[in-house]
Design brief:
The complex is a heterodimer. By secondary structure, chain A is mainly alpha-helical. Chain A has 12 helices and no strands. The radius of gyration of chain A is 24 Å and the shape is globular. Helix content of chain B is 74%, strand content 1%. The model of chain B has no long low-confidence stretch (mean pLDDT 92). The chains are: A mainly alpha, B mainly alpha. Chains A and B meet through α1, α4, α5, α6 and α7 of A and α1, α3, α4, α5 and α6 of B.
């Protein structure tokens, strides 16, 4: 018996070791970004490279916050994200409600089309999208990019909202109707208050995907009035001589709001993952 | 009784569904028709109909053949290794007696949450040949004799990209699989224990068959993500050193305004992705009907 216990302990010890290694590999790039972001220009290229900077500095953050395209890109990203997630919630939320609650011809086809749309390659959509937006005169505007991001957020919100509405038992509604509520009253007084947290989380998730999106933004934005944070960050590291300190400080600043937003929606996000409603 | 064109439910559904349908038609359906019809025209001759000419030219283009082989290499390796690594993570974390399950899960998951552009930029810096941290670690541990040109040589560039994608996607598989493992019925294992089944038998006869569905979803998602991945490859190598996949090819052809080639490549990418997407949808339908 004690031999078995010993073997068990040894095995668990080895598992901890493997997990610690996995954790180390996971955090290696994160740690390196953080470390680089607080180094002076001279220390960044020190040989051999050091993990803990000898003279840590916040100068890179100051550069990024007060002397770069990042604050403006932050503003753009924020506005684009708000526009797209608001529109997606309105359009996708109501479509999801109809998919879940009404029987109509084409229900299955349309809702599955929404599911499939989440897997469409953005590189394929970007070409027609560019010409359409060009014709409409909205290339290189925040509105144009927000509209393009609906390609991602609308199917996502529709599909998730459908699941949420389906999750509420029909009896709840029937009881309300017996009590004299109209369909619309049921929706606004009962379903929406019940689903407020879930729908808010979906909206935040739509916001995160817009914030992170690169391929479409890369084609549809070019000037300071519309470039978003991923584009601005990529410009940092595309110069002939990259200032890695500034780049990594910018990377940190871009990641923090996303990680924070993610913490808010972790639960719904994991459920969404399981239902296939999340785009990578 | 008068025959109605629309049922009562349909009349009620229309105001909810119509705005979303119109926007989807405009932003998704129309662009797809657009690119499809574009691929059958000669854009350098004012858009006249040219049949399958664009496709013929594309298939004869050695660059396209090379891209297809890169895409296959990239997709297969990232899917297989992400899936295996994620499964291993999940099984280790799920094991009885392992403490801090939530801690391991959420810290490993960080790799997945980080914005794609940040991932790519961070790794680009980490993998810098001269003075990069990765090479410093490998050389000082004696694993590599001299700095490895990760992103600047055809020998290592694709490998580097695969490593980064696996690093980012394995946590997703881990999360899905731990969710699956948690739903497994504990009594099945107890009775298997009573029957004297060992770890291997329990895994082979109980765990794996019950995780079939969730594995299927994971693998399909990984496939579609791999084929559609753009930012990681574009930022780290710009498709140089034999790392151009279909996404990159479409983008590059579009950028130089070779629209004949770009539209044909785009339709090819669309067909490949949609093949897997349809498999996925069929699976979801089966689940919903069940």
């Amino acid at each position: 018996m004690s031999r078995k216990k010993f073997k068990e302990r040894l095995l668990n010890g080895m598992i901890y070791l493997v997990l610690a290694l996995a954790l180390l590999i996971t955090l290696l790039p994160v740690g390196w970004v953080l470390s680089t972001s607080v180094k002076t220009g001279a220390e960044i290229f020190a040989k051999p490279p050091r993990w803990i900077p000898h003279s840590p500095t916040l100068a890179n953050y100051k550069d990024v916050l007060f002397g770069s395209s990042i604050p403006n890109a932050f503003k753009n990203s924020f506005l684009v994200g708000i526009m797209t997630s608001f529109a997606a919630l309105l359009l996708g939320g109501s479509a999801g409600y109809a998919f879940a609650r009404f029987k109509f011809r084409g229900n299955k086809f349309l809702s599955l089309f929404m599911l499939i749309s989440q897997m469409l390659p953005l590189t394929v959509l970007m070409i027609p999208m560019y010409y359409m937006e060009n014709a409409a005169g909205i290339v290189d505007t925040k509105t144009g990019l927000a509209a393009a991001h609906l390609v991602i957020s609308l199917p996502l919100v529709t599909w998730m909202a459908k699941g949420y509405f389906k999750g509420i038992p029909k009896e709840v509604e029937e009881a309300a109707i017996v009590d004299g509520c109209s369909t619309l009253q049921v929706l606004t007084r009962i379903l929406l208050p019940l689903l407020k947290p879930a729908l808010a989380a979906t909206g935040i998730y739509a916001f995160i995907s817009s914030w992170n999106e690169f391929a479409l933004a890369n084609v549809l934005t070019r000037s300071p009035q519309s470039i978003t944070v991923p584009i601005a960050l990529n410009e940092f590291s595309s110069f002939f001589k990259v200032d890695w300190g500034d780049t990594m400080a910018a990377a940190m600043l871009i990641t923090i709001p996303i990680v924070a937003a993610f913490m808010l929606v972790q639960k719904q996000f994991v459920e969404g993952l399981a239902s296939g409603a999340v785009k990578g | 009784m008068k025959r109605q064109i629309l049922t009562r439910d349909e009349k009620r559904a229309i105001p909810f569904i119509l705005p979303g349908v119109i926007v989807t038609a405009l932003l998704i359906v129309y662009p797809l028709i657009y690119i499809f019809s574009m691929s059958f025209t000669d854009q350098s001759a004012g858009g006249s109909f040219s049949g399958l000419y664009n496709y013929m030219r594309l298939f004869r283009n050695p660059q396209f053949t090379k891209t297809v082989s890169n895409t296959v290499k990239w997709t297969l390796s990232t899917v297989v290794f992400s899936f295996l690594a994620g499964c291993v993570y999940a099984m280790l974390i799920h094991r009885k007696g392992i403490k801090g399950k939530g801690f391991w899960r959420s810290t490993i998951f960080i790799a997945w949450i980080i914005p794609g552009v940040v991932k790519a930029t961070a790794w680009k810096w980490l993998l810098t040949t001269d003075g990069g941290m990765a090479n410093h670690i490998l050389v000082s541990l004696g694993i590599a004799k001299e700095p490895i040109p990760w992103l600047t040589s055809p020998r290592f560039a694709m490998l580097s990209l695969i490593i980064v994608q696996v690093w980012a996607c394995a946590p997703y598989v881990m999360l899905m699989m731990t969710a699956g493992l948690q739903q497994l019925p504990a009594d099945l294992y107890e009775s298997a224990d009573l029957d004297g089944a060992g770890w291997f038998k329990k895994t082979w006869y109980i765990t794996l068959p019950l995780l079939k569905d969730i594995s299927f979803i994971c693998i399909l998602m990984l496939l579609v993500w791999a084929i559609n991945e753009f930012s990681l490859i574009w930022i780290m190598t710009s498709g140089g050193q034999n790392t151009t996949t279909l996404s990159l090819l479409v983008y590059n052809q579009f950028k130089v305004l070779n629209l004949n080639a770009a539209s044909a490549s785009a339709v090819m990418q669309l067909l490949v992705t949609m093949f897997f997407a349809v498999l996925y949808v069929k699976f979801v339908v089966k689940e919903e009907d069940a």
